[in-house]
Write a structure and sequence with these properties.
By secondary structure, the protein is an alpha/beta fold. About 30% of the residues lie in helices and about 25% in strands. A nine-stranded mixed sheet has the order 16-15-14-13-7-12-11-10-17, with helices on both faces. Strands 3-2-1-4-5-6 form a six-stranded parallel sheet, with helices on both faces. Strand 14 and strand 15 form a beta hairpin.
């Protein structure tokens, strides 16, 4: 079967990478590209390359969907447009790849799931760890029982972003945009890949199966002194998984670490052993280690093509991607005090606070000697 015809919506920002890979790849032929902001420099560069290749450009995705015949749509837009665009594409008979997260509200993600079920078409969510050979290799080991039952996953996303990061576009950092849930905080933006990874590795079910969050304690903070930022840039949560009070995902995420050092750490703890992401091994509690076997996977674009042509399992189908939206929405509900403003200079040695809380598996305010801002 030859290349499938595809429409890409959103060709600036993260969409540029998808555009370049689709343009040069063997899985899809771009039939049209769409972006509502043609004056942006990154969009203009992609548009020029598209038009040089004879690919028509549109500023309205609805017009493109009506006028151009295609078998797939790639949605690479801000969060709040994922759901209406994906649903419209499915109803036009197109399989869909959508960037992460599926949606910033579980109701929007459910609408995407329902449309995929009604049309019988594939809808894939672009969480990187679900397509990463190392993460999926560890998932295969877990499904094989090498760690025993999983009891705990710990995720630390200890990052830094300049203030200018939150002023780069009108939708960035907002709770709602154009009447739609955007929720562009550290959890749905920078950390959503790692939420997906944590939920993926928290159960022994094979394939792309993610765990479900069934309980939460959480606290949210805002440290960047940027008026546009409405959402959290520092968060902590202790999450119950799959209805089992003894099974949890513990999360700490920030983009306002004043030390300016970015570091990500993730570990999976099972009854028989543990694995720290990036070490390439599983450490069994008896003293032995297993070498991690990476999984053999198609890339995200080719995976969608294989799902369309021969029913291959998606790397992250919407039925699993919706669980990330539900998890983060559950954290927002659990943080009953909402997002607490904190003067960034008060945060002090934030890394020390994060790692103390991670060692105790607790929220910042639950530490024996909690920081004053918590």
């Amino acid at each position: 079967m030859g290349k499938a015809r595809a429409i890409q919506v959103g060709i600036g920002g993260i969409g540029r990478g998808h555009f370049e890979r689709l343009l040069s790849g063997q899985s899809f032929q771009l039939a049209a590209v769409v972006d509502a902001y043609p004056e942006r420099e990154d969009v203009a560069a992609s548009r020029a390359a598209a038009e040089a290749a004879g690919i028509p450009f549109f500023t309205d995705y609805r017009q493109a969907f009506r006028r151009v015949r295609a078998q797939a749509a790639f949605i690479c837009t801000p969060h709040h447009w994922h759901s209406p665009m994906a649903v419209a594409a499915l109803r036009r008979g197109m399989a869909v790849f959508v960037e992460k997260p599926a949606a910033s509200a579980s109701a929007d993600a459910q609408r995407m799931l329902q449309a995929a079920q009604q049309t019988g078409l594939p809808l894939s969510v672009g969480f990187n760890p679900t397509a990463d050979p190392s993460y999926r290799g560890l998932k295969d080991h877990i499904a094989n029982g090498d760690l025993g039952e999983i009891r705990e996953v710990v995720v630390i996303v200890n990052w830094f972003r300049e203030d200018s990061y939150y002023t780069r576009s009108a939708w960035v950092g907002k709770e709602k945009v154009e009447g739609k849930w955007c929720r562009d905080g550290v959890m749905f933006n920078q950390s959503s890949h790692f939420f997906a990874a944590g939920l993926l590795l928290a159960n022994t079910r094979p394939g792309p199966s993610l765990s479900t969050v069934t309980g939460a304690r959480a606290a949210l903070y805002r440290g960047h002194p940027v008026p546009q930022l409405e959402m959290e840039d520092l968060a902590c949560a202790v999450l119950e998984l799959d209805g089992d009070p003894s099974k949890r995902l513990v999360y700490y995420g920030t983009t306002c670490n004043p030390e300016g050092r970015s570091h990500t750490w993730m570990a999976v703890f099972g009854e028989r052993g543990q694995a720290v992401i990036g070490t390439g091994r599983i450490d069994l509690y008896g003293g032995k280690s297993l070498r991690l076997r990476p999984a053999k996977l198609a890339n995200k674009h080719e995976n969608l093509r294989q799902a369309m042509s021969r029913g291959a399992t998606l790397l992250c189908p919407i039925s699993e991607g919706v669980k990330v939206s539900q998890a983060v929405e559950g954290i927002y509900r659990a943080a009953r005090s909402g997002v607490k403003p904190v003067a960034r200079e008060q945060l002090g040695n934030l890394s020390e606070v994060i790692y103390r809380a991670a060692a105790a598996r607790c929220l910042f305010g639950e530490l024996p000697n909690p920081p004053a801002w918590a």
